Amino acid sequence: MKLSIGIVGLPNVGKSTLFNALLGKQVADASNYPFCTIDPNVGVVEVPDEKLPVLAEIVKTNKIVPAIVEFVDIAGLVKGASQGEGLGNKFLTNIRDCDAICHVVRAFSDTNIIKEGSVDPQGDFEVICAELIIKDLETVDKYLDANKNNSKENKSKKFALAQKLKSELEKGSLTVNLNLNDDEKELVKEFFLLTAKPYFIVANVDEDTYQNIKDWKINLKNFETVVPVCAKVEFDLTELSPIEKRDYLRELGVQQSGLERVIQKAYDTLGLQSYYTAGIKEARAWTIYKGSTAPKAAAAIHTDFEKGFIMAEVVSYEDFVQYKGLLGAKEVGKLRHEGREYIMRPDDVVEFRINA
């Protein structure tokens, strides 16, 4: 499955620098003025995964295929974007095409960097959310106005939901946080709301902050969604070898790179996990939703596999490594034969049996 993350924020909070760091190369213009990104830059990033080389060594394959994430660097929004300020309407449309939103807020101090809008991280976040809410209100109002005199439609569940959404949006609520029943969750998809997008926050911090990251705090009400990243440090890391990178992160007291932590937060936010296939042809990571059954996981490889699913031969990653592959795991009774109801576990190594 393709995972697309839209990077949004006010101008000059470090979005393009972060984007370039995530990709490991200079793609987006990171100039010191608003709207230096006009069209969204799109980059595909391999998900860092230390397990894949281990699996590849065991099955004696030279081909490794990691999971991928698509990052979209969307130009800086400003207050009034929903009414077309800056280049707002175009950028808001770009957000609609993404699976999740990565809000970047400025948590560093540099008087040489021009700052638009608010002066604190919470303010940055609220300005962007307000623009998304206003745009969604426009969408909902358009539907309500078009159907208010339609006797059949205005008595429908969709119309009732639209009235509920309007009320909540006017309160400043993000619809992603609303408690909707199963019918409403399906109907709300028909509105393509920006505020229904899952999100997390990247706080772009100073270099010095990384030295004391355990004691770091920030003025954000949604603190549990926050990933602290120093975009400048991350970009510097792109010029280092893997060993130098690891040593530098250790000096900073950070266990994972910003890319790893951002991707992990994206997976957690969207409720995703990985499983593996490993054979002579390739060692590969596949991305699925948590709670997926074995047939659904097989569909990630090919849609026909779900229909033709017979069973899954499953070994945990730990057992696969310890017993040197599927055959070794089978010999000690660690290979499981799972049916259509099996719920995939993180890091399962699987071989599917399919009725061709």
List strands and helices in order, with pairings.
Blueprint: E1 4-8, H1 15-23, E2 41-46, H2 51-59, E3 64-65, E4 68-73, H3 88-96, E5 100-107, H4 121-147, H5 157-170, H6 182-188, E6 199-205, H7 207-211, E7 226-229, H8 231-237, H9 242-252, H10 258-270, E8 272-278, E9 283-289, H11 294-299, H12 303-307, E10 309-316, H13 317-322, H14 326-331, E11 336-338, E12 348-354
Parallel strand pairs: 1-4, 1-5, 3-9, 5-6, 6-7
Antiparallel strand pairs: 2-4, 8-9, 10-11, 10-12
Average pLDDT taken over every residue: 84
Major β-sheet, in short?
A: 6 strands, mixed
Count of DSSP-assigned helices? 14
Radius of gyration: 23 Å
Tell me the overall shape. flat
Poorly predicted ranges (pLDDT <50, ≥5 residues)?
Answer: 25-39, 84-88
How much strand content do the residues show?
15-25%
Give the helix level as a range of percent. Answer: 25-40%
Structural class: alpha/beta
Count every beta strand, where a strand is a DSSP E run of 2 or more residues. 12
* Helix and strand run: EHEHEEHEHHHEHEHHHEEHHEHHEE
Please list the strands of the largest sheet in the order they lie side by side: 2-4-1-5-6-7
> How far from one another are the termini?
22 Å
Give a structural overview.
This protein has 356 residues and is an alpha/beta fold. The chain is 38% helix and 20% strand. The chain has 14 helices and twelve strands. It has helices at residues 15-23, 51-59, 88-96, 121-147, 157-170, 182-188, 207-211, 231-237, 242-252, 258-270, 294-299, 303-307, 317-322, 326-331, and strands at residues 4-8, 41-46, 64-65, 68-73, 100-107, 199-205, 226-229, 272-278, 283-289, 309-316, 336-338, 348-354. The chain has a six-stranded mixed beta sheet, with helices on both faces. The chain has a three-stranded mixed beta sheet with strand order 3-9-8. A hairpin with a 4-residue loop joins strand 8 (272-278) and strand 9. Helix 1 (15-23) runs parallel beside helix 8 and helix 5 packs across helix 6 (182-188). The longest helix is centred in the middle third of the chain and has 27 residues, at 121-147. The radius of gyration is 23 Å and the shape is flat. The model is unreliable at 25-39 and 84-88 (pLDDT under 50).
